[in-house]
Amino acid sequence: MTPDLLLVGRIARAHGNKGQVIVNPETDFAGDRFAEGNRLVVEQDGTSIERTIRSVRFQQGRPIVAFDGVETMNDAEALAGAELKMPASALAPLPANTYYRHDLVGCEVTDTAGRVIGRVTDVEGPLERSRLVIGEGRDEILIPMVAGMVVRLDLAARAIVVELPDGLIELNVTRQRERRGREPDDAGPN
Q1: Rounded mean pLDDT of 105-133?
Q2: Which residues contact 15 (CB under 8 A, 6 or more apart)?
């Protein structure tokens, strides 16, 4: 398979007895990604197979998909947990000031004074409430992707400049400490 595959969803479980699956979308464009006739790569347990969407309908915002070659409930149950991916080259251009998440991951984030905050490791939330995740695990910082806070985004330079309200970074650090206080001690007894 090609190395430019992007995650667009995960199969949650089988639905019904005719080989359909319920998908947890990992995209803001579920209607486009899970359209009838689209081809997706199904990755599971180190194997990949390309499948065509035979039919789709949406229930409570989640696609219920029937793939060619998945005919029975047993076939569908075997796909639980599989990742659904598509080539980045198949993505359509976005409107101005809208970005694909994978384009933001790896960008260096600095404040307007030039201080480095860190690198984007993920983008969380739906399109209208996206947050940049800077760092990982216990040291991550969440920055809302809103006008006024993100003042410049240069994908070619892999750079994002932000103007943060006083206390935002400290608030993230405080929340991290609070979470650590609730986490079990790794060295303690079980």
Answers
A1: 89
A2: 21, 22, 64, 76
